[in-house]
Amino acid sequence: MRLEFEGNHAFSDADLAKTIVTTPSAWARRYLHLPFTVKHCLDRNELPNDRARLIIFYRRRGYPKVAVDTVVKELAPGAVEVRFKISEGPPTILRSFVILGLDSVPERASISRGLSIRPGGRFDRIAIDATADTIRERLHNTGYPRADATNRFAANDTTLSAWDTLYVSPGPRTRIGAINIEVTPLNGKRQQIPTRVVRRIMGLDSGELFREDEIIDAQRAIYQTEAYQHVSITPDSAADSVATLHVNLAEAAMHAARVGAGYGTLDCFRVTGEYTDYNFLNGARRLDLNTRVSKIGIGRPLDNWSGLCPTAKKDVFSNRLNYYAGATLRQPVFLGLRTVPTITIYSQRISEYNAYLRTTAVGGIASVVWRGLTRTPITATYSMDLGRTEAQPALFCAVFNLCEAAERDRLQRTQQLAVLSLAVTRDNSNSLLSPTRGSIIRLEARNSSPVIFSNQDLQFNKVVGDASRYVNLGLGNVLAFRIRGGSVFGRNVASIPGFIPPQERLYAGGPTTVRGFSQNELGALIYIASRDSAFLSTHPLTGLPDTVVLQNPADSGKYKRVVPVGGNSLVVGNVELRLRSPFLPDLLQWTFFTDAGEVWNRGTPQISEVKLKVTPGIQMTAFSPVGPVRVAIGYNPYQRPKGPLYFEGTQFGGAPLLCVSPNNDLPTHFVTDSVTKVTTVSQEIPPGIPACRATYQPPVNNAFFSKLTFTFAIGQAF
Fold it and tell me: HEC string of 567-586?
């Protein structure tokens, strides 16, 4: 029923629990008595062994006088508590730590720099063994492949003192000799990739110093071409100053095709098709032909199953199919071993939920990935496309003061957009899909200006970064943190940008950012009035003629949809406690989370209202072949923010966008053609004032369930 440790101060309960066999049953078995959950029974024959394991654990870490006692207490019939009472005693102090044998090594200073062992610390034999491994690895990467390191120590348990000496045997300084390459082609086929190409991909030459990390990098570079099913690079065993490398390769199929179909809450149904040539033009170049179509079922002309896509149905930009068709050519090596260039040509249409629709007639991307730093690829990208971005008229009017159709059309016409970006990623996590320890840091900077051949109306600078940390708590439990921030600015960091293309604005809210808010709805919002709302042509308070506001105060809660504004500034923070499920522990995971964040626009009057929004919640995750599948419930105690209220006058000539915010005083003119009987409406926007005042705020709904936001997603939030 229970496993307890008493008297331990130097090491946590989780550290000690990992060293012994005795394990408590699952929480659901112990307290809820649920069947089919994990049950562990007491093995009394193993208790003495567990006591010995704890004593050995402590002694190897510098506690020679440790004492451990075991107590088994019956809690109920068939249920016991096992308690280990520990008296750690004083630690043994390392009085000296000496490294011998590096005198002949030119790089001896860097070999011994930054080691974790210091005289005066605790005599931890595990840490000393790890230090020997570190020195051994550094020598292997400096031209000494046969280097070895062993330690000898003397300890006095009476005086609690220890002295340790690390003896290093570097062996001969070794260079690479001949490089012998043997290739096994597929059955019935001849060798596809020439040997000279393999040598170029490896990036190793005879006469260079033998460095184990470069050998591993060469092996990885060959594997990353995906043209081989087996790769091995081994040196000969002769103990001299020249090492012959034996490279054994087994070729894989050089062509692959894949088709797929799926469903997404925002994409509705989607299909994909891929074709890959791993040896394009006989040089181990990789050519990928990709195509995908989404919004099937809701987007024209395949819009016959909209009832199956309730979430996408709320998106005004899901009424047309999204698509992508592109060709990508990847060179295996360029300007050195760890530099991988890629060129892509594509055409696409892509939308962001209720924010924008981007249609690219033709575009190109050239990127270079440099892997000179371990676990830290640096990607430089230049992209240029001819395309147009459509956004809701209310967004242009409220955010950029562009309320005339001609002004909006000018920015929504097909234009040339060029972006130069630099991205750095530092990934020390232990898993791509669901990390349990380590960290991930990402930073990206983007620039668009006429200097790099972008249209003069499309200029911006953008910086986005995030950092995640994962702490393994033991027993399958993880504590995870993430902080994310971004800014879009003008020619310098302090300047406020003018028009920002909607696809480059910053958004938050949804299953991967702040889960108490719906997709992209954190921050300022614009409201579109319901079609059945009634309006007055004379303001009820000011008496001003030719203005339009809501006629009935009861209509104040009526709006058809919201338009996410996004912003030029963003900050998001997340804390998650991921707990192994007490039942079906290999399949399910429960998560308690708290998300906080805000999106705002610098340089606007509403910046004084910017406050961090905090939304706690709970999440259930199921691990599936396609990744973690999550259902999250976030609690949002906040009232929707004030914002402009617009009415889409589709019944009037020209389908104008009318500001109907409370207390607005924009002159509005209704003119009816005497012949066609068509009424044309126009609004005057005096210079120097906001296009539409942010005076509308939906009423508060205090019902508990109205404050819950449900989200569904595949993949961990971060």
Answer: ECEEEEEEEEEEEECCECCC
Structure tokens at 570: 């963003």
Please tell me the predicted confidence (pLDDT) of residue 322: 95
44-48, 443-447, 476-480, 529-533, range with the lowest pLDDT:
529-533
Three-state SS sequence of 456-478: CCCCEEEEEEEEEEEEEEECCEE
Closest by CA to 643, choosing from 612, 609, 669, 687, is 609
What distance in Å separates the CA atoms of residue 488 and residue 445, rounded to the nearest whole number? 10
At 137 the three-state DSSP class reads helix
Strands 668-672 and 679-683: antiparallel
Mark out the alpha helices in 369-404 (DSSP H runs).
393-400
CA 437 to chain centre: 15
Rounded CA-CA distance 61/90 in Å is 12
* Cis omega (within 30 of 0) for bond into 301: yes
- At 403 the three-state DSSP class reads coil
Token reading at 609: 């209202």
Q: What is the dihedral of CA 568, 468, 374, 333, to 10 degrees?
A: -50
Please give the structure tokens belonging to residue 274.
């891929």
Q: In what order do the strands lie in the sheet with 79-87?
A: 2-6, 79-87, 67-76
- Residue 282 CB: number of other CB atoms within 10 A? 11
CA 569 to CA 507: how far, in whole Å?
9
Q: Are strands 268-280 and 255-264 parallel, antiparallel or unpaired?
A: antiparallel
What is the H or E stretch that residue 130 is in? Answer: helix 125-140
Q: What is the pLDDT of residues 164-190, one digit of tens each?
A: 999 999 999 999 999 999 999 999 899
The rounded distance, in Å, linking the Cα atoms of 93 and 650 is 83
In the predicted model, is pLDDT for residue 533 greater than 70? Answer: no
Helices (H), 225-293: none
pLDDT of residue 156: 94
Q: Measure the CA–CA gap between 594 and 577, rounded to whole angstroms.
A: 9
Within 10 A of 422 (CB to CB), how many other CB atoms are there?
13
Closest to 571 measured CA to CA, from 641, 466, 494: 466
Amino acid occupying residue 630: R
Between CA 294 and CA 303, with CA 297 as vertex, the angle to 5 degrees is 115
Q: Who wins on pLDDT, 710 or 335? A: 710
- Is the backbone of residue 31 left (phi > 0), alpha (psi -120 to 50) or beta? alpha
Give which of 409, 663, 699, 444 is closest to 543, Cα–Cα.
663
In Å, how far from its chain's centre is CA 368?
21
- Residues paired with 575 in a beta bridge: 481, 594
579 vs 500, higher pLDDT: 579
Task: Please give the model's pTM, rounded to 2 decimal places.
Answer: 0.72
Asked which of 376-385, 480-489, 498-507, 533-542 is least confident by mean pLDDT, the reply is 533-542
Q: Is the pLDDT assigned to residue 118 strictly greater than 60?
A: yes
Report pLDDT digits (tens) over 567-579.
Answer: 999 999 999 999 9
191-224 pLDDT, tens digit per residue, is 999 999 999 999 899 999 999 999 998 998 899 8
pLDDT above 80 for 549: no
Read off the pLDDT of each residue in 113-120 and give the average, rounded to a whole number.
90
Q: Does the pLDDT of residue 238 top 80, yes or no?
A: no
CB atoms < 10 A from the CB of 427, how many?
Answer: 16
